[in-house]
Design brief:
Pathway: Pyrimidine metabolism; UMP biosynthesis via de novo pathway; (S)-dihydroorotate from bicarbonate: step 3/3. Substrate binds at residues 57-59, 89, 272, 303, 317-318. Keywords: Hydrolase, Metal-binding, Pyrimidine biosynthesis, Zinc. Its EC number is 3.5.2.3. This protein has 420 residues and is α/β, with parallel strands linked by helices. It folds into 2 domains: 3-46 and 369-384 and 400-418, Urease, subunit C, domain 1; 51-355, Metal-dependent hydrolases (TIM Barrel). The chain has 13 helices and 17 strands. Helix 1 links the parallel strand 6 and strand 7 (81-86). Helix 4 crosses helix 7, helix 7 packs parallel to helix 8 and helix 8 (230-241) runs parallel beside helix 10. The longest helix is centred in the middle third of the chain and has 17 residues, at 202-218. The radius of gyration is 21 Å and the shape is globular.
Amino acid sequence: MDKIIKNVIIDGQKSAIVISDGKIAGVGRAFAAKPGSEIIDGKGMTAIPGLVDVHVHFRDPGLTEKETIRTGSEAAAAGGFTTVLTMPNVLPVIDQVATLEKQVALNKEKGLVKVGQIAAITDELTTDRVTDIAALKQAGAKAFSNDGHGVQEAKTMLEAMKAVAAVGGIMTVHLEDNGLADGGVVDPAASERLGLPGLTALSETTQLARDIELVRATGCRYHVAHVSSQQSVELIRQAKKEGLPITAEVSPHHLFLDESMIQGDDTNFKMNPPLRTKEDRYALIAGLLDGTIDMIASDHAPHTEEDKAGSIADCAFGIVGLETTLPLVYERFVASGLVDLKTAVSWLNKKPIEGFALNEAGQLRAGDAADIVLLDVEQAFQINPESFHSKGKNTPFAGEEVHGLVMKTFVDGQLVFSKE
């Protein structure tokens, strides 16, 4: 049965969307309904394409007390995300073809949204044994990452880049030199003030500089996860000017928070990489606005209350983000007048689709998958962790007043979330 979403606002104009067989059959001012069509009145709502997040953690299998594919994808749908890529640091690690195939099937069975799987660069994420990149790509890996761990040896990274380049894959990299990180948990600017070990940005930038040279040598498509520092932005900017195949993401917490905002030993402000200085944060915003940074990704990292209990010194790294990313981006960028909605949405849809070749995701065009989100952009609301669909409640944004409330989310034309 066809669906028609009528009276929605698209690019400032009242419009209608026709859905047929899971695809968008048309977008325009008005359409004649076929007999039997389901009519959905979108009055007062703004339609945007379903968002894409290339960096989430669903913890399933092995760590399901933190999150499951089901609860993670429910959070995604509630946050307006219709396609997500999950990292391989589950138990067992996604580093073998059989494990990947089982995970791909599980993601499809349990996911409310489109859940793509990223595979490991090296066995167990921490060894120097490069995985069977070609076989994993053939089995459905969307990208390759050791997220949570930097690849320590240049020789290992070179071998991995050659293998990824040979199969036309993409590598999405957590940058962290263990020796320079040295057990740090906050930016050095906050270290003395908070009495906590510092984690220098050199841990990120030195690996990035190394990897840029390896990209130059191999031609590997290379994506920088959760950029955090001003110097990293400049390194990426220069690499792009040279035409190297590099893309980058930034998380909402690195865009909207910095170390000066950590007022005490609040574990919801612990993430890796850590919040850096105000100057770093401004450089990230500038890099996003000028295209140096391509996209926004949540790095959704749910934990139990026990995981985040105690001190920043010894609790788990990470915060949730799937249900806060869109309203935070809307509030800070669109409602403030810094950019228009189309630009903000491009960071969360068009750019990740292009960067990761996610052709199964839709962009609100005729012929695309009917991945559609309806927003109420007028109603203000407070971020309330107790209302999250995610098992994780760990966020430093609790209580913030924002706009951009997701009212309905459709995946392939099927309603997967409704606020009403």
